[in-house]
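During the no-cost extension, the postdoctoral fellow (Dr. R.K.) reprocessed legacy sequence entries with the updated structure-token encoder. One reprocessed record is reproduced below for audit purposes.
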Amino acid sequence: RVAITAGGATDADGFFMQATPNTSVISWKTSITLTCLWNPEEAGGEAEFIINSESIYASESPYDVEGDDDKATLEVDMDVGEAVLTINDLMSTDNAEIQCSVSRLGLTKEPYTLVVLEPPSAPVADIAVSDVSFTSATVTFSAVADATEYTIGIEFDGQAEWTEFTTSDLSYTLENLAVATSYSVRVEAGNVAGYRDDVELERASFETLDNRPCAAVDAIAVEAGTAYNASAITVTWSLDSNTASGLVVDQILVKAMKDGAVVADSEQTLAGDATEASFTLAGAGIYDVIVSTHNSYSADVDTSAATNHEVKETTDPPTEPPVITTEPAEITEDNEVDVVVDEEKELKCTDPNSVSAYAVGDMIVKEVIPGKNEYIECFLSESSSSSNSDIVWKYAGGAQLDLAQLVANNSTTISFDIDTDVKKSILKFTPVLDTYDGIYTCELGGEKCEFDISLTQMTTGASATHCLSAVLLLLSAVVLHLLY
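Re-encoded structure tokens follow.
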């Protein structure tokens, strides 16, 4: 912008200078024209302009009006009594006091003071965001020299589309923002001359508060391997849904319930990142374990998830694990059994959760609750030269067990694992479903182990209104067959 202080009032001889445009403010990088007029009958033979007390023709002059420089041009007509100076692409370096000089008339009485006002050249610093709420935030910043206004730009979550607001203050409150959303903010300094395109702008980032209730936990279950009559249990879960959506979980409440009542001393308040809780249950029965997530906005929202565990009444404690010996042993009447293993065989069968197993004829029976994690496994003998990856699992006497066959069996929770340290292959049910009835075998060469899995509905107690879980009888037939 150019500010022009007028001077050189018309004298008795009609000698004066005027500016076009004749305004106190014009855009920078534009042009100004100074016209000097006089009575040619009173003047001598020369006219020129004086820039800061130096002739425009002097070597020190910022303008080469006699060459090909387009920065400034000068046209003089002594016959008419007119001299016209045009200065282009005005910058602050053009600031000057300018007078017109005509022979015999001298200088115009007062100079024109030319001041070029450019946009601020410094970036806005100390950008900070405070008072962040769900839908608003306040941006503050430091003042910039020569700035009379500031433009605040806000970008939504990296979309590279800026929404802008202009203020003359050193702070601005952004409103109507989205909750739980990340923003970037920048500030530009300007004045009536405009804004510079070559200033590198600083940025600040912030995120509005989250007023969304949290989601329920995922994959809640009693810890795998818990015995059917265990009274000390651990329940686990994940926070995958909350993490994926960026939801805030402040705390997690857990409790155990039986027959609609909270079990004494079972209520626990855990940190928002907890993923397990342990309980000691009192007496036989079916217990519901409830886990609920909480934050400041979940009071009216059901964020609970539940699983259950049955502690069974039993007059006989679970048998001790089967003892594997190299000598034949008879099955005793009290169901304590030694499993006979032929050391010359490569393939061995075992019941990993034998604490709840007991013998029935040639079978090892193990009772579990549907919905729990179970597994069966086959070992290679120490003298075997085979690899555990050579062991093949089959279902119902069919082809090798694979994913397609599992899906056909309505299962997505059966998986395989191998343990190279002890040379074994494991078939995992996570959890057991009621579609898993049938015979499973692990085979190596001409040897195989058979596992008969069947589902049985069982109830306890006299209440007709209490629906008890089905109990799965895992019949592990530890039978080694030599097919050669």
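The radius of gyration is 46 Å. The CA atoms of residues 144 and 154 lie 20 Å apart. The remaining legacy entries will be reprocessed before the final report is submitted.
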